[in-house]
């Protein structure tokens, strides 16, 4: 079985960078006769743009990227996140933390675990809601500890991350009460039975901590593949926050053709004149993982 997914945050309409993630995950799934699910990651209302979720879905349809099953919305999944967090609390792995961003900056950006003695115990609902909840990666007694996660990325090759020195104890619930993106992603990817995560390389650095969560929750790890990132003329990542231009439906064929080129798939010049549907069919029939470019180091 193969179950893949595309998981956009609705912070703006689909732009060329997110089209690459959508197309790459779609083609990898369909070339392996898999399912392709869409999940709207609307857990952060402050970053959300009204109407963006609907626009993203419409844009996918206009580019002939049809998803299987119903769209899952993270805003309707709080109960699931809560129950997983409770499991981790019950395993004695969570502590409350009231450190600020400023505190964190003085630690060089890697949390040093200074609140570890404030163990979170009992019912999640009764804990002080103004504090963040962090996952304890190891016992302070064993510093300098190592929590090394290794995985073989489908496009970027072998990866090794040491969570202790590269990340520090991750926040799972924020001081503003919102669930952390990594918790929500891992809970949803396991609930949905995702076997392959194909997404942009901006998420490569958080992958170690997500795989670690899969392990802690006794869930099978998915395979991961991180696609290269599209950059703008100034060399910055195309993103909704940087107001990357939305892609437009009347140029669907061109958009898809350019995305195929970006993914190293080498479509013929003629193919740009074909319909979206034909371009997608060509993409499925010719998809080659080994042709996807590696990130420059
Ligand atoms: N929602 C995340 C984003 O739009 C992607 C999450 C993922 O693919 O794991 O950046």
Quick summary of this structure?
With 297 residues, the protein is α/β, with parallel strands linked by helices.
Annotation keywords:
10 strands, three-stranded antiparallel beta sheet, binds glutamic acid, 9 helices, about 300 residues, alpha/beta, elongated
Describe the model.
With 297 residues, the protein is α/β, with parallel strands linked by helices. Helix content is 32%, strand content 15%. It is built from nine helices and ten strands. It has helices spanning 16-31, 52-62, 78-90, 101-106, 163-166, 181-191, 204-216, 252-262, 276-286; strands at residues 3-6, 35-40, 72-73, 94-97, 132-135, 148-153, 157-162, 171-173, 196-200, 223-227. Strands 1-2-3 form a three-stranded parallel beta sheet. α2 links the parallel β2 (35-40) and β3. The longest helix is centred in the N-terminal third of the chain and has 16 residues, at 16-31. The radius of gyration is 20 Å and the shape is elongated. The site of glutamic acid has 7 residues, from loops.
